[in-house]
Amino acid sequence: MDYLASLDFGRPPAKGFLCEEMGLGKTLEITTLIKLNPRKSLSYNMKYDILDPSRRIKESKTTLILCPETILSQWNEEIRAVCPELSVYVYPGILYMEEKDHSITPTSVGEMLASYDIVLTSYNILSRELDRAIFKPTTRPKRKNNYERIDYSSPLMLLEFYRLVLDEAQLASISISRVGHFSRIIPRVHTWCVSGTIIRKDLQDLHSLMRSLRLYPLDKISSEHWEHIPRPLFDRLFKSICIRHTKEMIGNQVNLPKQTRIMLRSPFSTIEYDNYCDLFSRFLEQVGLNSNGEPIGEGFDYDRSKAGMRVWSSKLRMICCHALLAGDQLRRNMYVDASNSPVLATTSKLKKNHEFIMGTLEDVLKDLILRNELESSTSFLNCIRSRLKLGKINEFLRQPEESVKIFRGLIDEINEKIKEYKNYRRKDDEDTKITWSLRIRNLLECLHQSYFMLASAYYQHYRPMHPLPDNFSDLVDLNNRENDNEDENEKNNNISNTLTAVEQRFHELEVRYYGKADEILNILLEEPLKRTDESILKLEELFGGYEKYQIKEVPKSFEDVEEDDDKRNVTEEVGAGSIELPLICDSIPSYQETFEEYSTSLGITFVLNRAKECIEQLNGQSTIINCWFQTLYEFQRVPVTDDTEKTGNEYSSYLLLQENSQAYIDQLQLILEDREKAINSTEDMLYTNSTNKFQRTFMESGTKTELYHELETLRKAYIPQGTLNPRYSLHTAVLELVGELQGYQAGTLQYSTIDYLVKLLKDCMKGELNKLRTMKTKVFDVVNAVFNAKVAYFKALQSRSDSLTNYFPDKLGDSPKYVALMEIQEISKKIDNEKVKMKNLNNRLNYLKTLSTKREQDSTEFGDDSCVICRFKILVGSLTQCGHKYCRDCLAEWMKTKKTCPMCNKKLKEDELYNFIYSRGGLKGEVIESLHENREEVHRITSHNQNNGIAAEEQHDLERIKLLKNRRLFEKDMDYVYQELPTFELRDISNIPLKRKYGTKVDMIIRQVKYLINKTPGTQILIFSQWNMFLLLLGKALRYEGVEHRSWMDKTISSGKAKKKGENSKLNQDITDFKKDSSISCFLLNTVAQAAGLTFTNASHVFLCEPIVNLSFELQAINRIHRIGQTRETTVWSFIIEGTIEESIAYLSTKKRIQAAKVRKNALSEENNEIEEIDENILEAKELTKVNDSSKKEGEIIADEDLWAAFFAARSAHVVDSVFV
Fold this sequence. Notes:
By secondary structure, this protein is α/β, with parallel strands linked by helices.
């Protein structure tokens, strides 16, 4: 190395790509390059930058390495380990350095950087420093010598680095990014882009990197012309500037330890399986497919279903990791817990329990029950609302008898359901009580409508409607006449004397149910009415606390006053009495005698005269403010309900009162803004384009009332001159007096006089501004609270009124009757569907309530769930409405002869049964159930069908054959990739005890972690998942089980070490701890966001929590441990849930691996023989050149061509196999 280092070849600047495959030591190559090729000749003179000749730079020996922040410490450690004689400095950024030492300058930092062999910094620092990199310090001579120029340059732009290295260069491949811009302009001699996956999306990424390399003329080509470069020409050029070796190419030059892949599979627990089956059936129903992925109807469009399938794929994959991942409750609780915020922590009562773990099977079951109850109550509410509309339509069709029947049935059902909900509310906790109260309120609204419409239907019995017209024009005229007749009937309330005995009975029923509707309405309005009364009480307490004063004159409206009149002195006399006003805005002392006494010069006299005039105008304005506040108080103190006799005009009167109140509120806000400007303005508002925010709001709000315009005219008449011209404001007077003060020496009489006046006016300003602040906050908050409470009350009242409108058909045809009848048919179908849905939901809810999570603690026991018919344990069963469980086949045979429950003799209906499957089996390490074990069964069924034909009852046997053949294909392909685990090891893993039951996937992972640690103490594991929430949940479970770990999702350093600002980030600190401390067993990382660039040769196991379709992500994760420097055999563990979308994705991923290796091997050997095993080196050479878009931080995006197979590959392996032939 010393000999090679002594040679100076004098070659031109290097510009190229180092794209070695992952694990082949790109860091080692760059370090060796720096050691062997130092800068031979170094000039200390300033020179011009080649890219920007206006910038002066200084040559340096330094190599600048840019990399992601997560691998910054890794670079530092490896360089010091390989070449300890090289001096290395981690550059934290000029902003941090200046904050730490105020005397530091960019020039001094640049000189310091030039003394090191290597400078490391991150892309984040580069991005933050771009603005300073663009800055160019001037060299022009200063006009004055009494100030110092500030240099805002970036130290990285003051040196010509000998070498620039962009590690993980794909992160700088976006041409419009700040990192891409900075990397192009950094002065340097040589440039290297280092990455194993240089392309993230397409060849456009290379265009940006060519610009970073400054590779002429490709760096001058525009983005539009880049795509038109001939591909053969570009390929030849790229090969000349790219260095790439794969593990396949180097052969035995680098020997890595053996790597083993094992798939662990387990079925869902009973609770999780029920949840998954429910969601999967909803997916099939939404996209229109059956369980084998076949369309169930004509017109299925795969392209239109892609978006929905992609959403469902993410949801189902998350459910496979944990049943709560797709819900909002878990996300809220997990993030609140992770934040370590005492404010947030107190929002949950469960925080009091330090052993609380969110995500156990108890939580899953509770969440399923709550969701099912919500759907059931929503379905019931939809059904009720549809029947309400059905009753209105019957009333429209002049069929009051049918309406009465519908509304009476609704009333009984709603009352029964309300009693049921009230019982649930009494039993549940405080959080759930709110939900039940909301459901009861929704039912009360429907009950109010039912009572009201029932009363209306009884009215039609003795005051029948006119016959239904045949066309819509006559219908409109008829409605207008009936509305006029209703107004006349309201005026003549005494109609009972003109009714017959039968009509009198109907009239009494009408009055009775109208009364019941009013009772329900009072209950619904009780809460908004209570809030209104409380706010009015607070308003009375506030205004009652103010001192009162009386005036004999009030300001007058100025609509009829001429422009040249003195508007400020125009008032109207009250008369013999007087008006009492609250002293909210009191007058300012005039200071007349003080001003006259201290007017010692002409300049001071002018200033004091303007201040005096301003004070007089503000005092005139204060009377207006107090009058308006008093009027607003009188408006808002009026209660929304009282015991006076109702005239029918109360609602319109209250609306008018609220409208007038709004006008006073608007103008009060504006007049207070005017007052503040007159006191504190310092710029001429006449010449600014900005207007007051209140004025801007009101100008856009549309038509104003007459009262609003009157108040606005009065406000403008009393507007102080200082509002429009700050020369007349109090603030300007103070500033001018301060200016006068500068001309006198402290201690003189004149100085003391002016100083006294300045303090006097300042105190006056401060006091008035405090009063304004009080009026804007304290007073207006209370007034607005009353106003808003009344608005909420009237909105609630109006919404109830709107729900009672009569039915009127849409003009979709010539006949109103025909339209109404067609709508009855549609609503009836909707009601039937809701009833079926509600019945299924209730059946499932009964089943979920029978499940006991205690049984789930022991996977080998099923408690007392035995079938009384066959006396065996239930595996595939049915639950009756009476709560008894039987084997599904046993109960089906029983019901052929008897339609009653075998235990309680209650009548049974097939549509009221809920079918379920209890989870069976445990952890599996073999690939799949072997078809050879079922050879005799297959032969028997096949022979029977060939001899006797296919009968309907034998369809199940055919499905069994199809499934077994499908499993044969599955097993054959999976054997290429995954090895089996001995049965005794599986038994040992399954028998490891856990403190709690967290869920199938979490339990599998934790047991496997404990097994490996117990088997080999000091074992370290990387755990990858694409779901951040799952990493949070898994981290909490590991911590509770006593497994020491680190996670990139943690908010604080688990080790408790204090980290100074500017040092390595929290993630870097965790990485360092994990590498140095073997007691830290696990490191949790995101598969998509954190699977590149890191080196963890201290770990020997990789856990893939879920299968990945994009093999490049999977290989990136695996190669964190399977790389140069690894001395132990490594194992990759894949965790799969049986019978789910994960099996299909695992099979699809396996087929992709096989196909990739076949294509690569055939290209090299030109042989088409089937491969017996997967060569990982061949696979990596193929897959790692593919697109690797890591811009998405959570969850991979499945390509359109893989969507169908991601759902159904495991059940249709023959279809997928034909695609990859």
